[in-house]
Each structure stands twice: as structure tokens, then as C-alpha cells.
Amino acid sequence: MSTPNLPPLTAIRAFEAAARHLSFTRAAEELGMTQAAVSYQIKVLEERVGAPLFLRQARQVALSETGARLAPEVTAAFEMLKTAFAETRGRIDGMLNISVVPTFASYWLARHVGEFQMAHPQLALRLDSSARLVDFATEDVDLGIRSGPEQWPSPEFEGHLLLKARFAPMLSPALAASIGGVHEPADLLKLPLTDAGDPWFEQWFNLAGVEYDSKSRPQSQFGAQHLEASAAMAGRGVAMLTPAFYSEEIAAGRLIQPFELVGYDGHGYWLVYPRSRRTIPKIRMFRDWILEATKPLREGE
User: Fold this and answer.
1) For the residues 49-64, what does the mean pLDDT come to?
2) Number of structural domains in the chain
3) Is residue 82 part of a domain?
4) CB count, 10 Å around CB of 256?
5) Distance separating alpha carbons of residues 16 and 250, to the nearest angstrom
6) Where are the beta strands (DSSP E) in the chain?
7) 2 within domain boundaries
């Protein structure tokens, strides 16, 4: 057997407010309606119920027997709805979803995000390490950290440059030692390259005044900087990396940057989010924190 349709929600809200205040006037003020509109909605509900819900007197109203039985149930139902929405809102406000490119996630955010969590313990973080673009309109993502060119992103998004993606060759000390050390840029061509087709290699060698032909070398590809870094630390080749990400690896002796010369092609790492979300508290908290935390990476540029 099918369940009868519920009465209009507007009529139920009018009844609940009038029953709580025992006044059509005060109910109208609370709901932003006229007194006549409240009276009409209650009549609609009475027709659906099949019995009067109020005893209308000269200057006041009182609940009828039917109304007195119904009012607590309706109030309890609204309280349940309020609680459900408040809990849902709380979960949304208390969870920050960030989509971040893998290199930035592995070599910067994972190492520093604990500082944000300590400063904002009321927020839980969910990080999605992915290079794919996200659709803020349809996916449960609050913020993105992406690599992109200057004058990016598009006008409907807020974009904050976190650091410029400068690049320089890096390799393991053991690999450098295998040819007696790397003393000049041309020495790097004696070694395997993690991704010979990477445009950064050609740009950097041009800056160094070294002729470079990528087509004459094996065309291995790793597809992401953090994978090339792992290969370089394993001694598998020279990788073209962003030095700002690998200070710990250099300090620990897992990587060396043999030359101070760095290249830059206009790309950087950006914090992005829809412009319409710029005043949401949790987004402001993360934006302010990460811009301050990455400030040393931008100094002197």
C-alpha cells in the first residue's frame, strides 16, 4: 500500500511555529509571512488532517485536542531535521579536501601539513595526490594545488603562486662518482638521464652552453617529477628537478645538485579554488597558512 503524500512543508512549518508561540502573528514574524498567509497554510493543513488544529478565540488561539497531539510530534521532527543538517554542515565545515599534484604532495605538503593541523585541530584533512584536473562543481574538493604557467588560472578561480618551478640537474653521489665526479655541465651527458625528452633538459643545457640532442638518447619517461627523483636517488640517472623540493635529500646525501645554474620556463605551483569560495573560513585558514609557510620558497626570486 502506498504512503499518502505529506502535506505541504510550508503548511507544516506554519503550524509548528503557531503551535509553539500560540500566536499566528508571532508565527508570521518568525517565518517572514503575513498573518493571513499563516492562517491560510494552517487551514490547508486542517483540510488534510480532517479536523481543526486550533481553537480560534477573540484575541488568542489555543491548540485543539488534535492539534495538541500533533504539535509535539511535528516539533520533534523539525528538531531531528535541524540536528541532521547541523551535523552534515559540521562534517563539511570540519573536513578540508585538497587535490594536490604528487610532487608537491610528497616533497613539500606531506612534510609541513602537520603544522597546519596543529594550528587548526578542528579541521580534518583529506589529501588526494593526483595530477588530474578536478571539477570543483561536481567533485568533493575544496582546494587544488596544481602546476601551471604564469597568468593562470582562469578568471573564475582564485590563484596564489606558491613557488616558481625552477629546475636543475640532480643525481646520486654514487652515480656522480662512477665517472670520477661531475665537474662541468657536459659531464652529465656521460650518464643516463631519467627522461631525456624532458624539455627542461634541453633548456638547462642551452643555458649552460652545452649542445644537447635528446633524440640521440634513450627516451625513457617517468611521467612525474617525484618518480624521476626516486629514480635519481636510486642511482638510475640524472633527473631535472625543482631544487626547492629536495633540500632534505641534498642535506642527507641522497642527492647532489652539482651546479648552481637553474632554469625557469614560467611555470609554478599554484593554490587554486573557485572565486565564490574565497570567504569560506576553512579555505581562508589554509590559504593564509600555506602562503606564509611557502614564503621562504619565493624569497629572492
Assistant:
1) 87
2) 3
3) yes
4) 20
5) 68
6) 54-56, 61-63, 95-100, 124-129, 143-149, 157-164, 168-170, 239-241, 267-274
7) no
